[in-house]
């Protein structure tokens, strides 16, 4: 799971930089680091606006079972 946390933190960092540069995020609304599969997938969905499961699976390096678990938590 540490591998997934590192990937999630990298995504969090990159996404935060993108939002800052696009003026969609200010210092008060910077989200906390993502350390869960659920949060990781929520970030991908948020970045895309709308997202299919196929798109999530193409971007996420989580195992299929971890991805399924995270998606189930979103319901």
TrEMBL record:
Pfam families registered for this protein in UniProt: MarR
Domain HTH marR-type intervals: 34-75
Any one GO molecular-function label of the UniProt entry: DNA-binding transcription factor activity
Protein name: MarR family transcriptional regulator
